[in-house]
Amino acid sequence: MDLEYHIFVFTNQWSFMEITTEERNYFKQLDERQQRLYVGLRAKLIGWHGVSSVSIAFNVDVKTVRKGKAEVSDLPSTRVERIRKIGGGPKKK
Predict the structure, then answer these.
(1) Which of 14-23, 35-44, 71-80 has the lowest mean pLDDT?
(2) Long-range contacts made by residues 5-14, C-beta under 8 angstroms, separation at least 24?
(3) Nearest CA among 40, 87, 85, 86 for reference residue 62
(4) Cβ neighbours of residue 74 closer than 8 Å, sequence gap 6 or more
(5) Which residue has the higher pLDDT, 14 or 84?
(6) Could you tell me if 2 and 25 are in contact, meaning their C-beta atoms sit under 8 angstroms apart?
(7) Overall average pLDDT of the 2-26 stretch
(8) What gap in Å lies between CA 11 and CA 36, rounded to an integer?
(9) What are the φ and ψ backbone dihedral angles of 32, each rounded to 5 degrees?
């Protein structure tokens, strides 16, 4: 039986944020841009005090969370055509 641990981060005397160990491990696997978008989305979903709460919970700078929140708002609604740059991947023989 797998145990799921919950981390409660008290962001100020009135509120706290709950993060599971799986969520924290997932966050650590993301690249820098993906982390920024993830914390921006979490802050946007929380609403009031979201930026400071997410900043404390995920140990990232407030500026990073604000930038991620702005980037999430500016994301296109359609999927990006390419993930890799042209010419990326293994070279043809």
Answers:
(1) 14-23
(2) 7/57, 9/53, 9/56, 9/57, 11/49, 11/52, 11/53, 11/56, 11/57, 12/49, 12/52
(3) 40
(4) none
(5) 84
(6) no
(7) 64
(8) 19
(9) -60, -45
Do the Cβ atoms of 61 and 55 come closer than 8 Å? yes
CA atoms within 13 A on the CB side of 16: 8
Are 68 and 40 contacting, i.e. CB atoms less than 8 angstroms apart? yes
User: Which amino acid type is present at position 44?
Assistant: K
Residue range 45-72, pLDDT digits in tens: 888 878 888 888 888 999 999 999 998 8
Mean of the per-residue pLDDT values for the chain?
77
CA dihedral 67, 73, 74, 78 (to 10 degrees): 130
Helices (H), 1-93: 21-29, 32-46, 50-58, 62-73
Tokens, residue 85: 């740059």
Alpha carbons 67 and 37: distance in angstroms, whole number? 8
